[in-house]
Amino acid sequence: MPHQGLIPERIIVRGAARGSALLHLTGETTYSAEREDFANRAAQTVGDMVATIPGVTVLQGNGPRDSVVSVRGSGARQSYGLKNLQITEDGFPMTQPDGTARADLIDPHAYEGVDVFQGPASTLYGNYAINGAINFRTRNGADIHGLELGSDFGSFGLFNNYMTIGAGNKRYDFMLFGSDVRGKGFTANSQYDTSTENMRLRVNLTSSDRLILKFVNNVTDTSLPLRLSLNQFRSNPYQNGCANAASVAAGCASVNLLVNGAYGVRQTMTPQQAGLGRFDRRTIVGLRWEHDFDPRTTWHTQFTYDQRHVDQPTSTTAFVGPFNSYNVQTDLTNRGRIGKTPLTSFVGASFDYMDYGYRVYNLTPQGGATRGALNSTSYGHQWNIGIRFQEDWQFSPLWHAVIGLGGTQSDIGAIETLYNRSANSTTLQNITANRRFFNLAPEASLVYTPTKDWTLHTRVGTAYATPGYSSFFVTPQGTYGNNTQLKSETSLGFDLGAEWHPSPSINIQATGFYEFYRNELVSQSAGVNTPAGSYTFNAPASEHRGIELAATWQPLRASLPGARLKLSYTYDNQIYTKYTETLSNSTIARNFSRKGNLIPGVMPHFLDARVLYDQPDGWLQGLGGFAEMTWRSSFYLDNANILKAPSYALLNLEVHYDPPERLGWVHRLHSYFEVQNVTNQVYAAGATDISDTLLSTGQQAGRSILANETGSIYAGSPRAFFGGVRLKF
């Protein structure tokens, strides 16, 4: 029995007895966020779900919910999506075979929580799990038990109307979620409308057989501003007065479009005039069969179909095409014994395949993203076939030992056709990429629990990621062409961590990591007026090292039980240990060693601290709120470590009310109000890496020149006010 006036301890049971080892990784550094961490606020993107998880950073991608999520800095150098991670939802894959996952699908209102497995994770997750995996957990229908209707509204024309239906018993569990989010955006040409449907149905066919059906659909229709140079960001972060190229204000970004859509003279256009945007659809359908051979042995087999169709006039060109993916997974988990000691054995196999065919058109100055001549086409496939096993032996009540091995054969076959046009002729150039990769990933970990207050773990893990098809066809100049020499990147990582909860009011989790990379795949922007924008190269050797810390504390558990402090901090130091970059101009080329330089795009320090309070009893029961401070340090944008994105600190305030049951029907109404960026800071919410350049003198360009290189920065939101209500029936 809890003491009178204290908040009862919340115990979460996740049914590990039947769960796959893919969702319950022993020995790997794991941090989680639960619904209580993000449900009582204006949770618009995945960034709001993972804000309290150390080691995870979120940058703004290309669109309202296209968050660039990075674990330990691994994906921070991308301009969109979730890279170098394997993403699952309720155990179904959300990452396509080319390593692409996007956060457009994620409306936080649909989820119960998220688990982040940090560090090299290819042993169990295969290709692209170079720095971990993330599993999103949707809400259980039995917990919803009815109908919930909700609306969020606020600054910059935000409206999110959503609905959740849930029901369940011992035979089935059903959850259906739908939302429509629209807004004007705080930057010129960033208005959007995105709709999402998410469904999960579990049916217990017999006492030993279960079927799980999963469906996700998202349609994104968003206008898109251009990424800015540092100088443009400083002078005009929200692109005010930039609608007409003939009379723009200072600091406006623009694109230069071919007047005839094929060759020759170009005309300067603003994003509004050109009609830049993204008009994409993503549909995922999955079915899993779970069979218990006996109480200790469970077999999972699932099939997932994933179609991504893109129409993206994002710069001087429009990228259009379908990407069809198929994924089959099967695994067996046995919870047996060696003598009297528990042994959990896992073995699995997977095969995924993607075929694609995209076309790139030049944009014309006619407006409305009007397509001109065909710039290039690419058709191809990628498949990955893998097997993996893991043994988790609890050889004493205090010790777990884990070993595992996974391997993946990957095949990429693609051909790109370039159309080179002039007034007299059109010539075609074909570039072929036929690459096959084989990678192995062993791992071992040791978990020691000397007392109920301490858990210690150490781990050595490995991972790999093959180049994506698109990176083979973009040159360092940002044009479509031959870049087929790319290699797989691999990593070897060491973790040492501890979790300590000396009392019910204190919990501390800390991890140190040191990871060695070979042929790290790094992307850089070549500018907004290049057809492809970003290109990829291999850095031969690099090292990532850092510290992650998460802590919660109830300082006055007896006298003020509703008060809590929550802290998450990460130190992330990443350097090149072997990399020589070649810079060239029209007359000369020079080599520059980047050994010892910080890898651009990675924030060395980031901190999230919250002071929370929820009134546990009395006539104000259910009233709560928090004050949050988020700090991000400055970080370099280029390999020469010349130009930095500025640091920033944000203050957010929130208050919410969940009426107690004694108030009758009023108990069904939840409401909140939030102020984000209270001090109205101007900050860079997204900043991709830029290329260093070589002057005619043979010297690297300095800060004053790099600060004018476009294609990097998106500004974050100014001060914003949001409110919301949710009614349960």
TrEMBL record:
Domain of life: Bacteria
Entry GO terms, CC: cell outer membrane
Domain TonB-dependent receptor-like beta-barrel: 252-677
UniProt keywords, alphabetically: Cell outer membrane, Membrane, TonB box, Transmembrane, Transmembrane beta strand, Transport
Pfam families: Plug, TonB_dep_Rec_b-barrel
Domain TonB-dependent receptor plug: 29-133
UniProt KW Membrane keyword: yes
GO terms assigned for molecular function: siderophore uptake transmembrane transporter activity
Main location: membrane
Mode of membrane association: Multi-pass membrane protein
Keyword NADP: no
Subcellular localization: Cell outer membrane
GO biological processes: siderophore transmembrane transport
Record-linked InterPro entries: Beta-barrel_TonB, Beta-barrel_TonB_sf, Plug_dom, Plug_dom_sf, TonB-dep_rcpt-like
PANTHER family: TONB-DEPENDENT OUTER MEMBRANE RECEPTOR, TONB-DEPENDENT RECEPTOR YNCD-RELATED
Family to which this protein belongs: Belongs to the TonB-dependent receptor family.
Annotated protein name in UniProt: TonB-dependent receptor
Organism: Gluconobacter kanchanaburiensis NBRC 103587
